[in-house]
Amino acid sequence: MNSSYQSFLEQNGSVFNGYKSGSPFHIYCFSSETGNGTTAIYEVDSYASICIADHLYSCDFEYSVPSEDSIAIHQYDSIDSNHQYPLGSVYSGMQYIDHTPSKGICRYVIKKDIPARVLGIQLRPDYYTDYLKKTFGLKSVDFVTEIQKLPREFYIPEISYVLHQIKNFQGKGLSEKLFYKSKIDEIVSIIFQNTEEIVRYGTIISDTDYQAILATIEYLNANLSSETSLNQLAVKACMSPSKFKYVFKSVTKLTLSDYLFRKRMEHSCDLLLHSRLNIADIAQNVGYKNAGSFTVQFKRYMGTLPTEYRKKKCEF
Known about the structure:
Strand content: 15-25%
Radius of gyration: 20 Å
Helix content: 40-55%
Order of helices and strands: HEEEEEEEEEHHHHHHHHHHH
Distance between the termini: 26 Å
Strand order of the largest sheet: 1-2-3-4-9-6-7
Structural class: alpha+beta
């Protein structure tokens, strides 16, 4: 385990709680006056760590961790911070990629009462200085330089999709090892694709409009059960409906309806695997009026019925 994860677990009082049944992840739990939560960590060979955290704090949680030469790829499905993280503002719905040099200290504050749900990958230098070059022949590509081409705060739907695949995968043995290694490579390929597009086409969205769409994403992720019209979102973003549609798709690569569909399905997969809610309640949680319409859309997305998905995953 890298030193930043280790330090974080020590500061919130987490203790090793064994392995989750059917899962290769090390599970760490804490419960105290500060709050409660679970952190699951999996080591991919010697070059990467996968971290899935779900915490809730009853007071502002301040902590500091030593940085080490690594690249972090994080997605915040839910969080409220002091908005002063090293890479910029951190809030629900955003992703960030950060290269940190060694021998530094990073300080953070997670605000109380809002669940902190984070999906993350930490890449060690062995991955981007050795593995990438040897495996794919990338002799002239500097991955650290590539990620610096991305905006500081961003959202790439394809990365979100892969991170949720990682979170919900229940295989074991050889399938587990091959799956997690392949998903890390897939995320890196998505990053390369996006940096290539930035170089080719440049940035045509103003910073003000870009930030407005990020705020919209935060709002949508926190209100998946609500009906929100295009006109309402456009007003919130201080844009006309036509401009909002154009800017939203330019930033997310998805239409508004496609974005909402994907996020609702991602959240429903999480609820099916990690809660005891029945199908009707899950449908309402993700914005569907009845279980029937939700079931039709879920099968369209996953290729199986919600009940079958839950049953199959629980069999591992």
